[in-house]
UniProtKB/TrEMBL annotation:
The chain crosses the membrane at residues 100-119. Keywords: Membrane, Transmembrane, Transmembrane helix. One of its GO terms (molecular function) is DNA binding. It comes from Candidatus Woykebacteria bacterium RIFCSPHIGHO2_12_FULL_45_10. It holds the Pfam family Glucodextran_B. InterPro entries: Bact_Cytoskel_RodZ (IPR050400), Ig-like_fold (IPR013783), Lambda_DNA-bd_dom_sf (IPR010982). This is HTH cro/C1-type domain-containing protein.
Length: 296
């Protein structure tokens, strides 16, 4: 007479199933399946649980549960069995608990803090940011100055050709630099509190009007624009041509020379001072747009 285990094993093999596949589908551990197919009832849990296992396994294989249980009762005496406490199904591989969630949140916070501290350490000890947008290297100009515009860290010390330059609150700067006839090298440096320094250099070729063939210096008008206490967008026209248009930070300025006409426009007139023929005046009110042309 066939045993229950033999019936289970033959049916499983006839369906081409492995023990691993059956274990995955039924959630019954592989070792338990081996005990069932070996009819090793002593190694299994209590008869009540064993019957449940036989029903589930038999149902999965397409067998009649009542017939399996009948075979089981004939070959096994339930009264002689001591109930073991072995677990029947696979324990969950992962269970989300409040303790696990709390540990994850704490770990995430620690990683975030360490990342922030590392970034701050890099900003303090690394080379400062230094971007110079104007002028471009190897620029040729026909006047005696050029405006140096850029950005660095707000707490850095910025120098242009060794002279300290005041930074705006955001770390931007705009500074007029005087040029000599010929090749000029402008050196811009930015240093942090630890002495780490970033350096940018610009070569500017100045061909002044007085030295150009066929040109004579005949400036009749002179003016100067100073910006402060706030930055201002300024547009300057000389003899009908735009010579500068951009943002000047507080403390910066531009000197202007023209033959016949100067036009100055500011979108923050209260922070724009104009000096013309020895007279100094504010172009207008803070935040408003105003312009002035010379001669009046």
């Amino acid at each position: 007479m066939k045993k229950v285990g033999q019936i289970l094993q033959e049916k499983r093999k006839s369906r081409g199933l492995s023990l691993n596949e059956v274990a995955s589908a039924t959630k019954i551990r592989k070792q338990i399946l081996v005990y069932l197919e070996d009819s090793d009832w002593e190694a299994l849990p209590s008869p009540t649980f064993t019957k449940g296992l036989l029903k589930n396994y038999g149902r999965f294989l397409g067998l009649v549960s009542e017939e399996l249980l009948a075979f089981y009762r004939r070959e096994f005496d339930e009264k002689k069995v001591k109930v073991p406490t072995q677990s029947l199904t696979k324990p969950p591989l992962f269970r989300l608990t409040p303790k696990l969630v709390g540990g994850f949140i704490i770990s995430l916070a620690v990683v975030s803090i360490l990342t922030y501290l590392f970034i701050q350490y890099q900003s303090f000890t690394g080379v400062p940011l230094l971007e110079v947008s104007e002028p471009k290297d190897n620029t040729k100009v026909e006047n005696g100055q050029v405006n140096v515009v850029g950005k660095t860290w707000p707490d850095a010390t910025l120098k242009i050709n060794g002279q300290a330059v005041q930074l705006s609150p955001g770390g931007t700067f705009s500074e007029a630099v005087s040029l000599a006839e010929g090749i000029n090298t402008i050196t811009i440096t930015s240093a942090n509190r630890f002495g780490n320094m970033a350096t940018e250099k610009r070569t500017i070729i100045a061909a002044l009007a007085s030295s150009l063939p066929g040109k004579e210096l005949n400036s009749k008008l002179e003016a100067e624009v100073k910006v402060g206490p706030s930055a201002a967008f300024v547009s300057i026209e000389i003899d009908g041509k735009t010579s500068f248009e951009g943002v000047l930070v507080a403390g910066s300025g531009k000197k202007i020379q023209a033959k016949s006409r100067i036009r100055i426009l500011s979108k923050n007139a209260g922070s724009t001072k104009v000096i013309f023929q020895g007279s100094e005046f504010v172009l207008g009110k803070e935040g408003e747009t105003a312009e002035k042309s010379f001669p009046l």
